[in-house]
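Reviewer 2 asked us to include a model.

Predict the structure of this chain.
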Amino acid sequence: LPSKEDVQEILLLAKETSHEPFQSEGVKAIPSPVIKSKGSIVSEKNVSAKDIGIKHIKDFEDAVEWKLDNGIRVIWKSDPEADNLVRMSAFRDGGYSRDLSLDKIKTLQSFILLYSVADLDNKELARWSSNNSVSVRPDIDYRTEGFKGSFTPKQAQNFFSLLHLYFTDANLSVKAVSDRKTLLKRDINTQIRHRSIYNDSVVALRFSHYPLNLKLTNEDVERIDREDLIGLFNDVFTGADDYTFVFSGSMEPIKAKEYIEKYVATIPKSVTKKGKIGEYKEPIMRRGDVSLIYNPSDVTSTKASVNVLYHSNSKYGVEENLLVKFVTYILRDRYMQSI
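Predicted model (structure tokens):
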């Protein structure tokens, strides 16, 4: 059972979080992107997995590669068995390895799922996306930045309109920023709880090098500004420069061409130069055995939590991925039977 303090904390969180009464209302639509004239495909060729340099998926020979006049590279792989869905991954080198300060990286991590387009807030955009069976979201990791998304072929027009707007009219609502700042401050003020202390200790033991080990303070959160957040998004994600777009799904390249020329080939190049790519910021796992027994003195629960983590370097591919999953399922079943 939760303690009295846990219940009080939940009540306080509910009290401080803004929730408007539910109202059934129409779904607000995204505007049409302002595109004066379509772009063009400057080269086209058939490519295979070997040509592209992909090692960890099944081989294929029938993808199409387009080079666009704004510098973007598009790879389209038609898959009739894709269950009426097209998936997209757009990426370029950068991500956390760009010349960004740690506080900017942490801020971007905290707000990345709240960005929307035009005059829609993130909740309005989520409703519109759900109703139209499309999704686009920014994505960033240690070495790359870009977007991921999916759509049904019937909704291709809506998908590419939304994709183009993320590059030309990304937005962030005042309310979304305010609500997230409130939650960030709450988390900061409760970090002295045992769970946070334990998690920090585990991180210190697991990694010998952890470059992103920075926690925002109340002062950092207070300084977060909506316009700065929009500027940070544009600095990291927008601009056609060096992007590769990969599409795979139940749509033939010939049908996709018009959307590529109109919406992807017209993504403008960066107005300002992107930050340089510096050293990678991946954490480095410790080698050898390390252990932690954390026994706080004032807890009331009689339960114990035991975590055992293993890691090693190994070949990684589809077969290895499946084998690891099977081992995980077997160990999980064995554990459940033992208790």
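The two ends are 21 Å apart (CA to CA). Residues 318-338 form the longest helix (21 residues). We have added this to the supplementary material.
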